[in-house]
Amino acid sequence: MHFHVLTLFPEMIEQGMNTSIMGRAIERGYISLKATDIRDYAANKHNKVDDTPYGGGAGMVMQAAPVYGAYEAVKEQIGYRPRVIYLTPQGSTFFTAYGGRILQKEQDLVFLCGHYEGIDERVLEEIVTDYVSIGDYVLTGGELPAMVMMDAISRLVPGVLHNEASAEFESFQGNLLEHPHYSRPEVWHEKRVPEVLLSGHHANIEKWRREQSVIRTAERRPDLLEKADLSAKEKALADRCLAEKKLAFTQEV
Q1: How far apart are CA 41 and CA 111, in angstroms?
Q2: I need a labelling partner for 92 at 20 to 30 A (CA). Which of 33, 142, 207, 251 fits?
């Protein structure tokens, strides 16, 4: 997977992605990253890329021409019209399955990072294929959402994770949150590791982990349970957890 980021702050993207697991994945060639500075395509000596909005209002708007110039440079480099994701709170919410579908279809992926009050609508209409949000909140720019998406998509690329099972069995797998994890020592702050994890009985361990996933999802993300494939016993467990949660909330109020 080849990532291309159109941004006013390429160093932010490069520093954020060239570390830890992502950095090793880039170094080993599993993914690649190219951050293009939109300011390089400004038609003025000060590399100014923003101006006041027509119709008045607060803030500034990124101009169409520099954004389009940066996009055209990437398109010319890769030789075809790429998929372009504009990071915006107005977009559809990103989720891992969406990232997986992108990975199956695309060789190159372009992220457009906005700033100020936004980007001139005309260039968005011209180049953007996807409007995507990472949550219902507003950030100062699109760089952090772009890195979030690149990280999530990269995890699905074969070879990026040292343990391939990590990408398969994690939070949101089957619409359930992941079970709790424990490591050495067996006792820490007078808290013991659950005995089942020390038993060596793999069937019991998997059963416990599945139950914990159901419990955790009911407690923290009950909205996911509607799409989860649960047995009758697991559904009863989830319903019991939800009832206990509701009772605890009522008592607090």
Answers
A1: 17
A2: 33
What span, in angstroms and rounded, lies between the C-alpha atoms of 72 and 80? 10
Contacts of residue 132, defined as CB under 8 A and 6 or more positions apart, other chains included, come to 85, 86, 87, 88, 91, 92, 93, 94, 98, 145, 149
Q: What is the mean pLDDT of the chain?
A: 93
Any idea what DSSP says for residue 102? Answer: H
Across 15-107, the runs of DSSP E, i.e. the strands, are: 32-37, 50-51, 61-62, 83-93
Q: Contact 61/50 with Cβ under 8 angstroms?
A: yes
**Cα dihedral value 27, 28, 34, 35, nearest 10:** -40
Both tokens of 223, joined, read 């909205």
175-211 pLDDT, tens digit per residue, is 899 999 999 999 999 999 999 999 999 999 999 999 9
Q: Taking Cα atoms as reference points, which of 9, 149, 2 lies closest to residue 70?
A: 9
DSSP type of residue 1: -
Q: Global pTM?
A: 0.84
CB 150, CB 125: distance < 8 Å: no
Q: 3-class SS at 3?
A: strand
125, 156 Cβ separation under 8 angstroms: no
How long, in residues, is the chain?
A: 253
Q: What is the DSSP code string of 194-228?
A: PHHHHS--HHHHHHHHHHHHHHHHHHH-GGGGGGS
